[in-house]
Each structure stands twice: as C-alpha cells, then as structure tokens.
Specification:
Helix content is 29%, strand content 28%. With 590 residues, it is an alpha/beta fold. The strands form 6 sheets. A 7-stranded mixed sheet has the order 7-6-8-9-10-11-12, with helices on both faces. 39% of the residues are buried. It holds the Pfam family ApeI-like.
C-alpha cells in the first residue's frame, strides 16, 4: 500500500505543505518555459516511472545523488510517495559513497531502467486508480496518525564537516514543513520562478531551491545555473514570460558576480544567500547590480535556519518566527521547531552579541584539540598565523596520527608560495618562530601545506574531507602531496608537491636525489583513474618524454586531458616541462 506523507496541513495562499502533495496539484501552466525548467506538469510521469522501478525492490532508505534538479526531484518524491526516504551525500567522492552505502538498501540510478518502465503507459490508468485507492483507504488514519507520521524520516543529510568530522543528520517531514512554512511567510513565491545556484544535496539548496518552489507550484531550475552567464539567461527566461525571479545563491557566487552582467533591468524579486558569511561590500554591490534585496540566512544542517538579515539595512540578525534564542555569556543556544527535538536547547558553536530583538555574530567559538595531553585552541593558532604578513588564511587539522601532532593548510600570497624545498623549509621555520612567541612547542603544527587559497565547498565552507586529503601522503609514501585541483575547459590541473620522504627517492641517486620517470607515469595514471573512474585496464604508453628532472620538495602541476583511448598528461613547474605523454587505458562499460 502506498503510504501518505503526513504533516501539519497549511492553507496559506499560494502555498501547500508537503502533506498535501503540491507536486500532484493543478498549478498554473508553466510549460511555456524551456525544458530545462522543472515544474509540476512535468513531474507526474517521472514520479510514476520511479514508482514502477521501486515497486519490486527493497523498501527503506536509498542513496540519492543527482546534480540535475528535475531527475533528483522526481526520484525524491517517488521515494516519499512510496513511504521511503533518501540519504543525500554532500559529494561524490568514492570514500564518501563507500562510507554511506552500508546505511542504505541501494543507490538510485540516474534514471529508472527501461525494462521497468517500458509498459508504463499501458499501466498508467491502473496505477493511478490503485494509488487513489491506497490514499483513500489510508484517509481515515491521516488525522489520527498525523503527529506520528509527521515524525517519519524524509531525508538524511550530510554535514560539511567544517567544524570537525562530517556527520549524518536525519530530517523528518515535520521539520521540513515547519521551515518551509516560515519561508512561505517571509518570502512567498507567487508569480515567481526560482533560479538555484547551490547544490540541492544540502539543506539550504534542498529547501530554497527545490521544496519551496514545489510547495508554491513555482517553476525552478539549477545545475548549470551556478555559472553567472547561465544564471543571467535563466533570469531572463523567467522575466520574458512575466515571472519574477528568486535567486538562491552562496557567498562565493555573489562575491564573484561579474560587473558586466547588469541585471537591473530584469525582474529579480529577491536574492537568498546562505552557507557562509557574506561581506557587507559584496552584499551591497550585488543589490546594486541586481536591483534586488540580498537576504542572508544563518543556520546549519543540524538546526535549519536560525535567523536572517539584509546588510543594506544593518548587520543584525533577526530570528526566524518560532525560533527561541538564549544569548547569555556570548554563547548562542536555541530552541526551534526545525530541530529534531524542538523542546530541547541546542548549543550552537558561535559567539554572539545581543542587540535589542536581534543579535550580531562574533565568529566561531574555539575549536579545541588535545595535543600532548593538553587542550590546544586551533582557533588561536589560526588567528596567530593569519597575523603574519604572508598568510592570507589558515586552517589547522587534527590528523589523529600516532605522533599526536597537528597539520595546517595555509593560503599564502602568490609570490611567497614555495616552489622548491629550500624555500618551503625557510617559510616553515619563519612561521614556527612566529607561533613560538605565544604557543608551546607541542602545539605548533608539524605538517605544513601551502596553497593559493583554501578550498571551499559549494556552500562556501571548509570541507573536512578535502582538508584531510592534503595529508594523504602521510598514509601512503608512494603518493605526491595533493594541493588541490581545478577543471579548466576539458582539462584537469592538479597541483602536487614531491614529498621529501617519498619511497621512490631511496637510492635514486646518491648525491643528487630525483624522482624516477616511471613514477611520474604512475602518478598520472593514479590521478586519471580518480578523475575518470571508468578508466581501468592499462594498455600502454605513447609519446613519452622526460625533459627535466624533478627534485624532492618541488612543486608542479599535473595536467590531464581525456582522450578516446585514455589520457594525455604533462607535468610542469616554473622551471618548465618535466614530462609528458599519453597513456592508453581501457574504459569500463557498465
């Protein structure tokens, strides 16, 4: 029997709660928008295809990872209509997925398999009749079982790990509906189309980019909208059919909004922003560029939304309706209908200052680690490092190693970025001395990584898994130090550094240590398989050239380009090209 989604029904004008299945309602026709837009008229058949696919399979929690908002939404709603839930990974790293798979009955494919849906048209009438029968038979228990069913798991979200280890955060239908109702009261979406630039795999993108428009019958789009030029085109498409646009963005995207876009002639009702702090300069600049209010939402995966503000009107945060705050001793505690246990106080790891009915954020409370039997403030270490003239940003990492020492990732000015072993050694020595004036020797980091900028996830937060990856070479002495990667057109460029303790340096050669050429080929293959998981069996090497030697401590860039029969690769540094060639790798066909 199909089990209904239950929640507290809401009858606000132009808004239906999840319990009312707004995606099955007859909303104003939005099919005059391009096909890249998602709207209720498109969803019914897609949901039915997923229901047919799910019917013979195990019942429970499924892993759902799909960047396309249309296919993601259809799959999620089919899970809900069939009484199941979704676990939403925050990223697609193999290690992340391997950690999560034991917690689910399976992973949903990109689309339902054809063999399960090929006869769907012939079954549509029967399936519709059966679903209505199921709903009607369950109708007698809808009100009586309302509170119990509202507490059923809807999704499980993954926290970013920006303040420690990533964790799982289940959300029930009550929590989602409570927050969506507040969104509807504050920022209604009547005659509005939503352009989402952030991932719906996280709470903010899921609520503001997918569920809020669904509950209003508003069309929405995402995926490639994260690019400024594409976002501008989507806003124009909405305006051209008489709809206002609501932009769902992150601080990272708004800070990079090009001046030339000049969207002030378009109809943008509002810009929502969340995930990390947005500077006041960026907020005001974007309001001017977009001719629209920029509204920030402060919260977390665990708490949902806590407060909101518009910086052009002041820097104070206003709590969401129903959110109760305790701001004593500069520590933030809250009770909220968006929490799993609304009656209990939640301790938020932020420092605040009360100002009338609002508050001002003062930053994170200390992050502490136990080093050498003593508690060390990672926050204090980072602040001290950032006082040095060459350091732009710093993040300490508790590596849980047997030696009990810390790692640190530092963003330094471009001309101070060490390219060779000696420059790296001198910079580390300088920064150690800088810390030694205020910190005990045991608290000073032992492992140092230097980058142009600290990596941020799509929400603008530090990602714990990415920070840990900077130190993978400590666990495997065959690997280079990984210092970040970026995709440029059809290439991937990976910044690497040769570890001084690399296994392959031993005996190669005494008095003039260098990296063997074959190791560079191995590194190229290793990173190619990470970037292109379908590549598997090695079939040979072509056009291989070794042009310059590579020494311990040297920084370099590995460039990978996909070819029909494998990859092309090159290793370059400020000294020039060290090696290049092509590797033939057979692709796996699932």
């Amino acid at each position: 029997m199909t089990r209904p989604i239950i929640g507290a029904p809401t009858t606000r004008d132009g808004y239906l709660c999840l319990a009312d299945r707004p995606w099955r309602q007859a909303w104003p026709d939005a099919r005059h928008l391009p096909s890249r837009w998602c709207h209720s008229q498109d969803l019914g058949r897609r949901i039915d295809a997923w229901l047919a696919w799910l019917a013979p399979r195990p019942h429970g929690r499924w892993l759902l990872l799909d960047p396309d908002p249309i296919t993601f939404t259809a799959a999620l709603l089919a899970l809900w209509e069939s009484g199941q839930s979704a676990l939403l990974p925050g990223d697609d790293r193999p290690a992340t997925l391997a950690r999560l798979m034991p917690l689910v009955v399976g992973r949903l494919p990109a689309e339902p398999s054809p063999e399960d849906t090929q006869d769907l048209s012939a079954r549509d009438s029967l399936a519709t009749t059966q679903r209505e029968t199921d709903r009607n038979s369950a109708g007698a228990t809808v009100v009586a079982a309302d509170s119990e069913a509202a507490e059923k798991e809807a999704v499980v979200l993954c926290t970013s790990g920006s303040t420690g280890q990533p964790s799982l955060e289940p959300k029930c239908f009550r929590q989602l509906d409570e927050e969506l109702e507040r969104h509807a009261a504050l920022w209604p979406l009547a005659q509005t189309a939503v352009v989402c630039q952030v991932s719906h795999q996280h709470i903010y993108g899921l609520l503001a980019g997918i569920l809020a428009p669904l509950c209003h019958g508003a069309p929405f789009c995402g995926d490639d909208s994260r690019f400024p030029e594409v976002m501008a085109q989507r806003v124009s498409e909405a305006t051209s059919v008489g709809l206002d646009a609501c932009l769902v963005a992150s601080p990272a995207q708004l800070s990079r909004l090009p001046q030339h876009l000049a969207l002030h002639h378009q109809r943008i009702a509002r810009v929502l922003c969340s995930g990390a702090p947005l500077s006041r300069d960026d907020a005001i600049r974007c309001e001017r560029l977009l001719d629209s209010p920029v509204i920030e939402i402060y919260g977390s995966t665990e708490t949902g939304g806590i407060a909101h503000r518009r910086q052009s009107s002041g820097d104070l945060w206003t709590p969401f309706p129903g959110v109760e705050l305790d701001l004593n001793d500069s520590a933030l505690k809250l009770r909220s209908p968006f929490l799993a246990r609304p009656e209990q106080w939640w301790d938020q790891a932020d420092r605040v200052e009360r100002q009338g009915e609002g508050f001002r954020l003062l930053g994170r409370r200390d992050r502490l680690a136990k080093i050498g039997g003593k508690r060390v403030s990672l926050t204090a270490l980072e602040q001290r490092l950032c006082q040095h003239e060459v350091v732009q940003d710093a993040r300490c990492v508790d590596l849980d190693l047997r030696d009990g020492r810390l790692g640190v990732v530092l963003a330094v000015a471009g001309d101070a970025l060490p390219q060779q072993h000696e420059a790296r050694r001198r910079l580390i020595s300088t920064l150690r001395e800088h810390l030694a004036s205020e910190h005990e020797p045991s608290a000073i980091p032992r492992y140092w990584r230097f980058v142009e900028s600290l990596p941020l996830n799509p929400q603008g937060k530090h990602d714990h898994a990415t920070l840990r990856r900077f130190f993978d070479d400590l666990d495997d002495d065959r690997l280079p130090r990984w210092l970040g990667a970026v995709d440029v057109d059809d290439e991937q460029r990976i910044t690497l550094e040769v570890p001084e303790r690399l296994r392959y340096l031993e005996g190669h050669f005494e008095g003039f240590v260098l990296v063997p050429g074959v190791v560079l080929v191995q590194w190229a293959i290793h990173h190619a398989r990470e970037r292109y998981p379908a590549l598997c069996a090695f079939r040979g090497v072509d056009r291989l050239k070794f042009q310059k030697v590579l020494r311990p401590g040297q920084r370099l860039t590995l460039t990978l380009k996909r070819r029909t029969d494998g990859i092309a690769f090159s290793f370059d540094s400020p000294k020039g090209r060290h090696a290049g060639g092509r590797v033939r790798l057979e692709a796996r066909h699932d």
